[in-house]
């Protein structure tokens, strides 16, 4: 009877006496017959029993859950089962890795543009400063009739 | 004997006569005994046979391959089997989705910076143009002793 008062779902389905130390009883309660039915259909009660016996007690609940998950997947998709989900996820990972690589390349491009802009910024300032000086210089030239700067004329006189 | 001259790997392991229409023979050749041994250990020959019988002929090769894959995964990881790979891949997808979201947010930030810069560019040009005019205007003022532009003086005379 396992831990309960009625035979576990496994023993009920297999129509056998549910012993006190039944290996299935802790994981297949009588109120959830479908859980055992699907692992029995896919793996077989004998194989499930052997797999559980080979594991320490603390790992058995996870093993049962993963077997139920696998069996459900095989029931839904009799051709690919869990492998269909793995293939789908692997494709998703590949697609995301490509999208991430493209995004990272775009970020790198932006960063290089910013670096180039910040590197040329002082030069631009200097160029603008030079340009202002040219304006000033041209403005100075308005003082002479022939367009040559007066300052240069003075210099030529002093030289 | 299936398609070959010797019993298939399944019939050899199960020690039975390999009939001409053996359901295992096309997928479990005698030179690869391990392939059947693992699906037999995990699913059981009877379940594999039933699962194949429920599928059309053209889907059976894929079904066998996915069962071999699942059985191998369960042999390697008796607790989680294929579900371990699914959990790993799901975590990888979540991590990649987060990284992609962060990268896309960074790209959006760069794009907004660029838009802001291009929107302010004409204003910057105009400001610089104005600045040059100021220089010119200041340069003109050099012509007068008191610093007021001569042009303005003429205008005031003509008005």
Automatic annotation (TrEMBL), chains A, B:
Keyword annotations from UniProtKB, A to Z: Coiled coil
InterPro entries the UniProt entry points to: LOB (IPR004883)
Top-level division of the source organism's lineage: Eukaryota
LOB domain ranges (all copies): 6-107
Range of residues in the leader sequence: none
Pfam families in the record: LOB (PF03195)
Stretches of the chain forming a coiled coil according to its record: 86-113
Protein family: Belongs to the LOB domain-containing protein family.
The protein's name: LOB domain-containing protein 12-like
Protein source organism: Cucurbita maxima
Name of the gene: LOC111499469
